[in-house]
Give the backbone structure.
Amino acid sequence: MLINHTQKNTIKKEKLLLHTCCAVCASYPYFFLSNNFDTTLFFYNPNIYPKEEYFRRLEEVKRLSNNFNIKLIIGKYDPSYFDHKVIGLEKEPERGKRCVACFKIRLEKTAKVAISKNFQYFATTLTLSPHKDSSAINKIGKEIGELYKINYFESNFKKNDGFKKSNEASKDLGFYRQKYCGCKYSMNT
Protein backbone atom coordinates (compact mmCIF):
# COMPACT_ATOMS: atom_id res chain seq x y z
CA MET A 1 0.00 0.00 0.00
CA LEU A 2 1.21 3.52 -0.81
CA ILE A 3 -0.13 5.20 2.31
CA ASN A 4 1.77 5.38 5.58
CA HIS A 5 -0.21 6.93 8.39
CA THR A 6 1.89 5.65 11.27
CA GLN A 7 4.01 8.79 11.61
CA LYS A 8 3.31 10.58 14.89
CA ASN A 9 4.16 14.23 15.16
CA THR A 10 4.13 15.92 18.54
CA ILE A 11 4.30 19.43 17.06
CA LYS A 12 0.92 21.14 17.20
CA LYS A 13 -0.33 21.52 13.64
CA GLU A 14 -2.81 24.01 12.27
CA LYS A 15 -6.25 22.56 11.61
CA LEU A 16 -7.47 21.96 8.05
CA LEU A 17 -10.98 20.90 7.00
CA LEU A 18 -10.78 18.81 3.83
CA HIS A 19 -13.92 18.60 1.73
CA THR A 20 -14.20 15.16 0.17
CA CYS A 21 -16.55 13.74 -2.41
CA CYS A 22 -15.64 10.06 -1.92
CA ALA A 23 -13.14 7.71 -0.26
CA VAL A 24 -11.19 7.21 -3.50
CA CYS A 25 -10.55 10.94 -3.85
CA ALA A 26 -9.87 11.40 -0.12
CA SER A 27 -7.20 8.74 0.36
CA TYR A 28 -4.16 10.41 -1.18
CA PRO A 29 -4.96 14.08 -0.36
CA TYR A 30 -5.74 13.28 3.27
CA PHE A 31 -2.43 11.55 3.91
CA PHE A 32 -0.52 14.15 1.89
CA LEU A 33 -1.99 17.01 3.92
CA SER A 34 -1.68 15.23 7.26
CA ASN A 35 2.08 15.59 7.08
CA ASN A 36 1.63 19.30 7.75
CA PHE A 37 -1.91 19.77 9.10
CA ASP A 38 -4.27 18.34 11.68
CA THR A 39 -6.69 17.26 8.96
CA THR A 40 -10.39 16.42 9.30
CA LEU A 41 -12.52 15.12 6.45
CA PHE A 42 -15.78 16.89 5.60
CA PHE A 43 -18.29 14.92 3.55
CA TYR A 44 -20.73 17.42 2.04
CA ASN A 45 -22.19 16.59 -1.35
CA PRO A 46 -25.80 17.66 -1.99
CA ASN A 47 -25.10 17.12 -5.70
CA ILE A 48 -24.86 13.33 -5.50
CA TYR A 49 -27.71 11.48 -7.17
CA PRO A 50 -29.49 9.17 -6.52
CA LYS A 51 -29.63 8.95 -2.74
CA GLU A 52 -28.43 5.33 -2.86
CA GLU A 53 -25.24 6.55 -4.53
CA TYR A 54 -24.86 9.27 -1.90
CA PHE A 55 -25.13 6.78 0.96
CA ARG A 56 -22.81 4.29 -0.73
CA ARG A 57 -20.11 6.97 -1.05
CA LEU A 58 -20.74 8.13 2.51
CA GLU A 59 -20.31 4.59 3.85
CA GLU A 60 -16.97 4.28 2.05
CA VAL A 61 -15.77 7.59 3.54
CA LYS A 62 -16.86 6.35 6.97
CA ARG A 63 -14.89 3.15 6.37
CA LEU A 64 -11.79 5.19 5.46
CA SER A 65 -12.30 7.28 8.58
CA ASN A 66 -12.75 4.23 10.83
CA ASN A 67 -9.87 2.23 9.32
CA PHE A 68 -7.35 5.02 9.83
CA ASN A 69 -8.87 6.83 12.82
CA ILE A 70 -9.52 9.95 10.72
CA LYS A 71 -11.79 12.64 12.09
CA LEU A 72 -14.91 13.06 9.95
CA ILE A 73 -17.68 15.64 9.84
CA ILE A 74 -20.77 14.79 7.79
CA GLY A 75 -22.77 17.63 6.27
CA LYS A 76 -26.49 17.57 5.66
CA TYR A 77 -27.67 15.84 2.51
CA ASP A 78 -30.05 18.22 0.74
CA PRO A 79 -30.24 17.50 -3.00
CA SER A 80 -33.06 20.05 -3.41
CA TYR A 81 -30.55 22.77 -2.46
CA PHE A 82 -28.22 21.66 -5.26
CA ASP A 83 -31.11 21.44 -7.74
CA HIS A 84 -32.18 24.99 -6.83
CA LYS A 85 -28.64 26.36 -7.27
CA VAL A 86 -28.19 24.85 -10.76
CA ILE A 87 -31.55 25.82 -12.28
CA GLY A 88 -30.89 26.78 -15.89
CA LEU A 89 -27.54 24.97 -15.96
CA GLU A 90 -28.86 21.45 -16.43
CA LYS A 91 -27.68 21.18 -20.05
CA GLU A 92 -24.21 22.61 -19.40
CA PRO A 93 -21.37 20.27 -20.39
CA GLU A 94 -19.06 18.74 -17.81
CA ARG A 95 -16.52 21.33 -16.64
CA GLY A 96 -19.03 24.05 -17.53
CA LYS A 97 -21.04 26.55 -15.48
CA ARG A 98 -22.99 23.86 -13.61
CA CYS A 99 -19.74 22.37 -12.28
CA VAL A 100 -18.55 25.83 -11.22
CA ALA A 101 -21.82 26.33 -9.31
CA CYS A 102 -21.38 22.91 -7.69
CA PHE A 103 -17.81 23.71 -6.61
CA LYS A 104 -19.02 26.98 -5.08
CA ILE A 105 -21.79 25.23 -3.13
CA ARG A 106 -19.43 22.71 -1.59
CA LEU A 107 -16.46 25.01 -0.99
CA GLU A 108 -18.59 27.72 0.59
CA LYS A 109 -20.16 25.23 2.99
CA THR A 110 -16.71 23.82 3.81
CA ALA A 111 -15.41 27.32 4.61
CA LYS A 112 -18.41 28.07 6.84
CA VAL A 113 -18.04 24.81 8.76
CA ALA A 114 -14.29 25.35 9.07
CA ILE A 115 -14.86 28.78 10.60
CA SER A 116 -17.56 27.53 12.97
CA LYS A 117 -15.25 24.78 14.24
CA ASN A 118 -12.09 26.90 14.53
CA PHE A 119 -10.11 25.50 11.60
CA GLN A 120 -7.38 27.72 10.18
CA TYR A 121 -7.61 26.24 6.63
CA PHE A 122 -10.02 24.54 4.28
CA ALA A 123 -9.32 22.56 1.11
CA THR A 124 -10.96 20.09 -1.24
CA THR A 125 -10.14 16.74 -2.78
CA LEU A 126 -11.85 17.81 -6.01
CA THR A 127 -8.51 18.82 -7.55
CA LEU A 128 -7.45 15.16 -7.61
CA SER A 129 -9.67 14.26 -10.55
CA PRO A 130 -8.28 14.60 -14.08
CA HIS A 131 -11.87 15.46 -15.07
CA LYS A 132 -11.91 18.60 -12.90
CA ASP A 133 -10.34 21.96 -13.62
CA SER A 134 -7.98 22.56 -10.68
CA SER A 135 -7.43 26.18 -11.66
CA ALA A 136 -11.17 26.90 -11.57
CA ILE A 137 -11.57 25.08 -8.25
CA ASN A 138 -8.63 26.95 -6.69
CA LYS A 139 -9.91 30.30 -7.97
CA ILE A 140 -13.27 29.64 -6.30
CA GLY A 141 -11.59 28.44 -3.11
CA LYS A 142 -9.40 31.54 -2.88
CA GLU A 143 -12.37 33.85 -3.51
CA ILE A 144 -14.41 32.12 -0.80
CA GLY A 145 -11.42 32.20 1.55
CA GLU A 146 -11.05 35.95 1.03
CA LEU A 147 -14.78 36.52 1.45
CA TYR A 148 -14.98 34.58 4.72
CA LYS A 149 -11.48 35.47 6.00
CA ILE A 150 -10.17 31.91 6.17
CA ASN A 151 -7.14 30.34 4.49
CA TYR A 152 -7.79 28.21 1.45
CA PHE A 153 -5.13 25.57 0.77
CA GLU A 154 -4.52 25.71 -2.97
CA SER A 155 -3.83 22.32 -4.51
CA ASN A 156 -3.60 20.21 -7.61
CA PHE A 157 -3.58 16.74 -6.11
CA LYS A 158 -3.43 15.03 -9.49
CA LYS A 159 0.18 16.26 -9.87
CA ASN A 160 3.07 13.95 -8.98
CA ASP A 161 0.90 10.91 -9.74
CA GLY A 162 -1.61 11.85 -7.04
CA PHE A 163 -4.53 10.46 -9.02
CA LYS A 164 -2.63 7.23 -9.67
CA LYS A 165 -1.57 6.92 -6.02
CA SER A 166 -5.12 7.51 -4.85
CA ASN A 167 -6.46 4.86 -7.20
CA GLU A 168 -3.80 2.34 -6.14
CA ALA A 169 -4.41 2.97 -2.45
CA SER A 170 -8.17 2.73 -2.93
CA LYS A 171 -7.79 -0.51 -4.85
CA ASP A 172 -5.60 -1.91 -2.05
CA LEU A 173 -8.26 -0.88 0.49
CA GLY A 174 -11.13 -2.19 -1.65
CA PHE A 175 -13.02 1.10 -1.89
CA TYR A 176 -15.99 1.45 -4.20
CA ARG A 177 -15.07 3.51 -7.26
CA GLN A 178 -17.98 5.35 -8.85
CA LYS A 179 -18.33 5.74 -12.59
CA TYR A 180 -19.53 9.36 -12.68
CA CYS A 181 -18.94 12.64 -10.87
CA GLY A 182 -22.07 12.51 -8.79
CA CYS A 183 -24.89 14.70 -10.07
CA LYS A 184 -27.69 13.34 -12.22
CA TYR A 185 -26.45 15.43 -15.13
CA SER A 186 -23.05 13.74 -15.11
CA MET A 187 -24.38 10.17 -15.02
CA ASN A 188 -24.20 9.65 -18.78
CA THR A 189 -21.10 11.66 -19.64
About this structure: The chain has a mean pLDDT of 92. Residues 97-116 form the longest helix (20 residues). DSSP finds six helices and five strands in the chain.
